[in-house]
From TrEMBL:
Coiled coil: none annotated. Pfam families: Glyoxalase_6. InterPro entries: Glyas_Bleomycin-R_OHBP_Dase, Glyoxalase_6. It comes from Actinoallomurus iriomotensis. This is Glyoxalase. Residues 7-145 form the Glyoxalase-like domain.
Length: 145
């Protein structure tokens, strides 16, 4: 039996990061824990101070396939290249026609730039667009492939 796990981002602004990654991955806000109708009810029940309510955010795959993602507020800024990154796989693989793959990648990149991401580099394979390295609103690198 596999161990359940969550991908967690340390960040300065959890709600902003959750909003961006909802767009990038098609995820939704995680439901409140069992026994609570809302996150506000849970926060109030555990007497979390109001000023800490935005110190975290959580997303879940609406299809129940991908891992949960959490965002935790930390005081320090990102200072180096991340050693683990997400590949947003939209192109369908190298067996797909190049024009279709490129259109899917460019459409996704445009949508993610609008959502607050930035393009770092474009990479080619055999003279055609293969993937784009981007950064989320806090500088975490990821690829659109």
């Amino acid at each position: 039996m596999a161990t359940p796990w969550t991908l967690t981002f340390d960040c300065a602004d959890p709600p902003r990061m959750a909003s961006f990654w909802k767009v990038a991955l098609g995820y939704v806000e995680a439901p409140p824990p069992e026994g609570f109708d809302t996150w506000e009810q849970w926060l109030t029940h555990f007497k979390v101070p109001d000023e800490e309510w935005d110190d975290g955010a959580a997303l879940t795959d609406p299809d129940g396939v991908g891992p949960n993602i959490s965002f935790l507020k930390v005081p320090e800024a990102k200072v180096a290249k991340n050693r683990l990154h997400i590949d947003v796989q939209v192109a369908g693989g190298r067996h797909q026609p190049w024009d279709l793959r490129e259109r899917r990648i460019r459409d996704t990149v445009e949508r993610l730039v609008t959502a607050g991401g930035s393009v770092l580099t474009e990479h080619e394979f055999e003279g055609r667009l293969d993937h784009v390295v981007m950064a989320d609103p806090e500088g975490n690198e990821f690829c659109v492939v």
